[in-house]
Amino acid sequence: MANSAMVSRVENERVLVLERVFDAPRELVFQMFKEPEHLKRWWGPRGWEVPVCSIDFRPGGIWHYCMKCVDRNQGDFFGMESWGKGVYAEIVEPEKIVYTDYFADAEGNVNEEMPSTEVTLEFMDLEGKTKLVNRAVYVSAEALKTVIDMGMLQGITETWDRLEERLQEGK
């Protein structure tokens, strides 16, 4: 089956909406965002691994992770580590996850110089498939432009391609 393309649009200058249909049941797609052993297998763009991923999956809980570039072909990125921290605000299984995403360090300290993002993931049942809608609200249009200029759309496209591949492995 051909991969369903990711659709992206910007609303109100600072909201990035990403949508994609995955060929897997909603409960399974939801699990992929809930459990560290799943996230470690697909989170991040191609050539990156997740050596650290801890999740306290409840409102107020924290998701702390490290992405590391292991692909020598990515030049200056090779060996780079990128730490992130999510703080869950709302979880409705298997329909919705709301969290704030921060740039962080290995100790979980938030990098105040980088913009945080309010993320809402919605999982919609489409007769055995799942439509995933990712709404990311940035503090400003400038903050959104910053992450897009960093290549975030390509990174998310590759990340969701890896998620689709992981979902197909389980079939």
From TrEMBL:
SUPFAM superfamilies per UniProt: Bet v1-like
A Pfam match: AHSA1
InterPro entries named among the record's database cross-references: ASHA1/2-like_C, START-like_dom_sf
Domain Activator of Hsp90 ATPase homologue 1/2-like C-terminal: 23-167
Family from the record: Belongs to the AHA1 family.
Record protein name field: SRPBCC domain-containing protein
Biological source species: Brevibacillus nitrificans
